[in-house]
Structures are given as structure tokens and as C-alpha cells.
Design brief:
mainly alpha, 15 helices, 0% strand, globular
């Protein structure tokens, strides 16, 4: 499948356009998705979480089979299939407002994600080389943010007409994007991966065994990956239920004259702008080359997440809940890159890829295992669901404190 498209574009320019388009569609769809699932489909907390669990399971199971396409056939083809499937998943959910269709759409989304995950990034490196690709990834992130802001605004406008409209429109746009990439995306640098480097179940099992052997020999690493498990266990409950809490517990729709989709869009824009400023503050105050500064920041941010979850669950009024929401989301957004930095600081370069692969699998398992119980609690009480999430995440604070004391910066 290494063929020249009809209207090839330079890979760098194509990457920026694709990033902006993905940011636009992602915000267009996901700003509305959970509101749509609660208000139109009528899903309860357990159903919301089960839909997310179906997505995570499909990702976990399909990562290897879809990786074969990118390794052996074509990175380009893998990405095109993935983007088309993402579009189909949005259309299924936006056009058929019943719970089974939502589950099916999430499964299709998970499969589509595995086709794009890794394949597109590998394509860009193949086309540009490692050095230019690094710059392209940074510029692409900026383009995606700009597209995301535009997508939030478009979602607010379309969502006033129908909550299904931005989701279905996003699905159609994703399919158009896949078609446009089929006409413009070159693939000049691809060569099939050697047999020994291809994604297979045997390779995955060998990676897992190797990683576990390394981790067992280093108790500090085991402690860090256990922390990562707690991050996974709590997360699905928050991701799927935070909007339902504002809608159902605080009757958000009845409090304001504006449509709720406009309110959520405004909240998304506010937190996005605040996050840009907060990230700059952390960048200046926390030096990535100083492990002790990074570890203290990770500990503080995780503690703030626990406090935010507790406050969000117990909030007596909407204003308190929104304040807790801001604290939690900002802390979580800042934690992600710092956690990756800290984890990498304590992994030997010779086994880094293996240990990070195991860490990713542990996080996925945590999301799959932790989501349904929290959803079951949320069916009885959304407040209790967030308190349960806080209780699940709290041991990570204890483990982080222990790790901060025991881990030393590498010589």
C-alpha cells in the first residue's frame, strides 16, 4: 500500500492541518457527548461507565491485531482506517440514541483508536525524520488546541439546535477527513517492520514478562507502577460521571436560561484557558532536571486531586462543586506530563520502552477494573461515587510520599 496519493501534500503541512481538524472534531463531539448520553439517551451512571469500559476493553484487545497493519502493511493505511472508524462510531452514537448503540459506538471507537495509535506518529517520523518530527509534534499540539477552541464554539452553536447534531456532524467530518487524507497523505519512508519487531501477542507477552522481571528486581519501580494502577482505577468514574453530577445533582439545566451545552462549552473554554496559564507557571517553577522538585509536584497535585474529588462529591451547592471541578481538572492536567517525567527519571534507558509498555497496560487494566464498581455506586448516589473515587486514589498519595522519601536522583 506504499503508493502516491492523487494530491500529495508535504507531510509537515498535512500534519498541522490534520491536527487542527482533529482538535476541532474532538471538541465538537466530546463537549456534547456525555450531556447527550444523560439527557437524550437517558443513561444512568452505571450505563455511562459501562460504555466507557466497553471502549477500554476494545482498545486493550485490539491493540496488537491492529498494530500488525501498521507494522507490516502500511502506517498510512492503518491511520486512514482508524479515522474512518472514529467517524462511524460518532455517527452510530449521534443517529441512534439508545444504550446498545452507544456501547457499539464506543467499541468501534476503541478499534479505530488502536488503528491510529502509534501508526500516525510512526508515519510522521518516517516522513520527516526524528528531528523535524519532534518540532512537528509541538506545532501540531498548538494547532490542535486552536482547532479545539473552535470546536467548542461550534458545539455550543449546533448543540442549541440538537444535542445529537454536533456528534453526528463530527462523525461526518471525521469520514471527510479520512477521505481527504487518502487523497493527500504521502508515504515515502515506510518499510515493513522486521519480523522480530512486529506487534504480536507473543511479543506482547514477552514484553510483559521482561518488564515484570525488571520491576520485581527494583522495588522502587514496583511502587511507582502501583501508583499508576491507582491512577487508572479511579479515572473512568470521573471521566464518565462528572457531567451527570452537575446535571442531576445540581439540576444545572433548571438553573440557567442558557442551554446546558452552552454552559459546558463555556466551562471547557474557561478550564482550557486556565490550564494554559497554570502549565506555564509550573513550567517555570518545576525544573524537569530536578527529580526532587518533580516528585514534590506530583505528590502535591495528586493530593489536590483527592481533595477535589472529595469536595466535588460533598459540595452543598453548585458554586462549591464548580470550584472543586476546577481544582481537580487543573491538578490532573498538570500531573500527566510531570508523572511521565518522574517515571522516566527512575527507569534505566536500557529497559525504558519495556517498563513504559507495562505501565500503559497496568493503567488500562485499572480503568477496566475500576470503572464498573464506581458506576454501580453512582447508580445509587453520584456523591458516593466521587467519594469512592477519592478513596481509590488516596493510597497513591501515601505511596507517592513513600517513593519521594526512598527514591534518589540518578547519579
Amino acid at each position: 500500500m506504499n503508493w502516491t496519493p492523487r494530491f500529495p501534500l508535504p507531510a509537515y503541512r498535512l500534519h498541522l492541518a490534520r491536527s487542527a481538524a482533529l482538535g476541532f472534531v474532538g471538541s465538537l463531539v466530546w463537549t456534547a457527548m456525555l450531556v447527550y448520553q444523560v439527557q437524550v439517551v437517558g443513561m444512568d451512571p452505571l450505563q455511562l461507565v459501562l460504555a466507557g469500559t466497553a471502549m477500554e476493553v476494545s482498545i486493550f484487545l485490539c491493540e496488537v491485531p491492529t498494530g500488525v497493519v501498521a507494522d507490516v502493511v502500511s502506517r498510512r493505511l492503518s491511520a486512514l482506517i482508524g479515522y474512518a472508524l472514529l467517524g462511524v462510531s460518532y455517527l452510530i452514537q449521534g443517529l441512534v440514541p439508545v444504550f446498545p448503540a452507544i456501547v457499539l459506538g464506543n467499541i468501534v471507537w476503541g478499534i479505530g483508536h488502536t488503528f491510529t495509535s502509534g501508526a500516525y506518529e510512526a508515519w510522521l517520523v518516517d516522513e520527516l525524520g526524528q528531528g523535524q518530527a519532534a518540532q512537528a509534534f509541538m506545532r501540531g499540539a498548538q494547532a490542535e488546541r486552536v482547532g479545539g477552541i473552535a470546536g467548542i464554539v461550534a458545539c455550543a452553536l449546533l448543540g442549541r439546535l440538537s444535542l445529537a447534531l454536533p456528534i453526528a456532524a463530527g462523525g461526518a467530518l471525521m469520514i471527510v477527513l479520512a477521505a481527504a487524507l487518502a487523497l493527500t497523505m504521502p508515504e515515502r519512508g515506510f518499510a515493513p517492520a522486521p519480523r522480530g519487531e512486529r506487534s504480536t501477542w507473543r511479543h506482547l507477552a514477552a514484553t510483559l514478562r521482561e518488564g515484570l522481571a525488571v520491576i520485581r528486581s527494583q522495588p522502587a519501580l514496583m511502587n511507582l507502577l502501583l501508583i499508576g494502577l491507582f491512577y487508572g482505577l479511579f479515572s473512568e468514574g470521573w471521566d464518565r460521571l462528572w457531567q451527570a453530577h452537575l446535571l442531576n445533582t445540581f439540576q444545572l439545566a433548571e438553573r440557567f436560561a442558557l442551554p446546558v451545552i452552552v454552559l459546558f462549552a463555556a466551562l471547557s473554554l474557561f478550564t482550557m484557558a486556565l490550564g494554559i496559564g497554570a502549565a506555564e507557571i509550573v513550567r517555570r517553577r518545576v525544573r524537569e532536571g530536578q527529580p526532587q522538585e518533580v516528585s514534590r509536584a506530583v505528590l502535591l497535585l495528586t493530593a489536590l486531586m483527592v481533595a477535589g474529588l472529595v469536595a466535588y462529591g460533598l459540595a452543598p451547592e453548585l458554586g462549591v462543586a464548580l470550584a472543586a471541578f476546577v481544582v481537580f481538572t487543573q491538578a490532573r492536567g498538570l500531573l500527566r506530563p510531570l508523572w511521565q517525567v518522574w517515571l522516566n527519571q527512575h527507569i534505566s534507558p536500557t529497559v525504558r520502552a519495556t517498563v513504559l509498555s507495562v505501565a500503559s497496560q497496568i493503567d488500562a487494566i485499572g480503568e477496566i477494573v475500576g470503572g464498573p464498581p464506581i458506576g454501580a455506586v453512582g447508580r445509587a448516589s453520584l456523591r458516593a461515587a466521587f467519594l469512592a473515587s477519592a478513596g481509590i486514589l488516596a493510597p497513591a498519595v501515601v505511596l507517592l510520599r513513600r517513593a519521594e522519601r526512598r527514591l534518589r536522583p540518578p547519579a
